[in-house]
Here is the input.
Amino acid sequence: MVDGTRWLHARVHHCHGGLRAPSTIWRWLHEDAIKPWQARSWIFPRDPDFATKAGRALDLYARVFDGKRLRPDEYVISADEKTQLQALGRHHDTVAPAPGRPGLVEFDYLRGGTLAYLAAWDVHHANLFDPVEQTTGIVPFGRLVDQVMKVEPYRSARTVYWVVDNGSSHAGRTSIKRIANAYPNARLIQSADPERLRHAPRARPAPDGLRPALPQHRPTIPVDVHARQARPRDRENHPSRATPARARRLSRITYGHVH
Here is the structure.
């Protein structure tokens, strides 16, 4: 196998007549090399109440709810699901990376279909519950809730806040009632208010020639998730300016999924 990096280093060294030090060439490659495996995510929030809804999750992550500090016997769980994970089997174990060498992964594998990964993360105590299911849905998510709520300290907690997105496994007021009936001390916090979502206006098509590579969407405020702040030209119109404390937390969070 040809080591492309070494070949490129030699090529650059030759093009400069051997007058540049190897360390200089390595620095150039490090600074300018194209790295296709790296990507920066972005999102256009389409909900006019995005800052308010995201603020509920951010407040809970800061151990605040409805303007009051959480008590020591109140817990915050952030839950999510990952679907369509390929289950691959290999004869030889994967070897973790070590100093001076990369990780080792056998090329050949056996397909085992797809699985779903569910996770419930205690935000402030670093407890993880992560069952693997055949699929997602109301029943698998219910088993995840059972796994958490049937053990201490959550079983006897004053309140356990479950921060979730608006996925079908836990969407709508029915899901809120279902969990509350099963565990009176559990409270489901959804990223969208079901009533407002039902009556929300449909997205309007973007004007011709405007962002042709993006899906149709309502005019929104772009948020660069890794820059972790609103773009300068949009900062004055950002909806979160009305709540400075939440705006500061909002500018620091990375939105893989907005809860």
